[in-house]
Amino acid sequence: MAAVGAVAAVAAGLLNGSWNLPTKPDAPRLVNAAMYWEWEQIWLVANVLIVVFNTFLVLGVVGASTLGDVYGGASVGELGSICAFSLLWGFGGVGYGQAIKRVGMALGTSIVMAQIVCIGTLLPLVLALEAGDMSSQEIVGSVAGVLLACAGFAMSSRAGLLRDAGGETSTAASADVEGVMEVKSDEVRVADVECAAKGSSSRSTFVESMAWCVAGGVLSSMLQFAFVFGGGLVDDAEEAGVSKEAAAMPVWMLCFLFNSVGHVGYASRLLTTNDTWRKFRSTTYRDWAHGSVMCALIAVAFTAHIHLYGLGAAKMGSSGAVFAWPLVMSSTVFTAQVWSLVLGEWASASWEARVANWASLGLLVAAVAVVALTAVL
Fold first, then answer.
1. Is the pLDDT of residue 204 over 50?
2. CB neighbours (10 Å) of residue 94?
3. Can you tell me the distance from the alpha carbon of 41 to that of 43, in angstroms, rounded to the nearest whole number?
4. pLDDT in tens, 294-314
5. From CA 323, how far away is CA 295, in angstroms rounded?
């Protein structure tokens, strides 16, 4: 069971590191929506579809009647905490984008991702320790995996800085997560474009820049808080006859709905600011069809990675969230780094930058291996 959970968590990371591919201008033409739509157009349509797809999935698996019973039996505090954390998770992506805008892609990603992994792992770890659900071996393994992941993020930051110093334009090397979890490559992309357009770094003070980094990391970790504090709904769903693998779906239903508030609001603001609403009308029917399919792929991949995370955590037992979270995050950044290689983003990088990038990939693989083996054994 634990092995299945580890595979599900890694698969969630693979999807989380890949769903944003259609937003990249240098993506293969077949999966490229950025050829004729701006980022904010893609993200608005994708987020609407994410909510629609997730709603149909949850209703199809759990059922409207059972879902109503689960929500009806939950306390106001439980529902309120899930909704509040999910709303914060949505705005975390905006904070992440602002962090990248101020301190740069490489350093900002390293700082924010380290926070996401540490905070997201620490919360269920503390709760598991209080409940006595973890052995000494599991504690050591999970902490070692998180440290390896943070080392991988730091090395990725170094690689990016070296590449940029050699004349390369900074590009998104990791996803939202998040974006999982969300490592949120959508906002990273916007921040990157805004930086390039301005041609200079932000004038914010160092304190303000670090504050955005902290906001991006902390708020992007709120998905884990919603999942952990939504444990009562998971138990209620199981008692109502929902399988253990799908019992987290009532939580995800609320998470997706309230997460969309931040993303749809941010995309709408950019559409207004950049006067790109009109591009919806000027797009040909053929391009509309292709763009809609690409947004649908984004929505399916994003939706699936969250549910796979929940499945992985469920399969790994009562302390599953401790192991599933770093597995997803490490796999996410690893996948995004691999995509950056495939898309040729390192083609002109220096030898030192390439070595640092490969070292970061090795550290991330080691983090996944340590956490997965700890959970299985």
1. no
2. 24
3. 6
4. 999 999 999 999 999 989 988
5. 30
Instruction: For 341-368, give one letter per residue: b (16+ CB within 10 A) or e.
Output: eebebbeebbeebbebbebbbebbebbb
Contacts of 119 (CB under 8 A, 6+ apart): 217, 218, 221, 224
Alpha helices in the chain (DSSP H): 2-16, 39-62, 64-73, 76-103, 105-131, 136-165, 185-198, 206-220, 222-229, 231-239, 249-273, 278-282, 285-315, 320-342, 351-376
Which residue do the tokens 């916007």 mark? 190
In the predicted model, is pLDDT for residue 216 greater than 90? no
Please report which helix (H) or strand (E) contains residue 75, including its range: none
User: The tokens 């505090």 sit on which residue?
Assistant: 77
pLDDT at 179 over 50: no
Q: State whether residue 61 is helix, strand or coil.
A: helix
Residue 257's Cβ-side half-sphere holds a number of Cα atoms within 13 Å equal to 13
Domain segments of the chain: what residues? 2-376
Over residues 38-92, the pLDDT tens digits come to 989 998 999 999 999 999 999 999 999 999 999 999 999 999 999 999 999 988 8
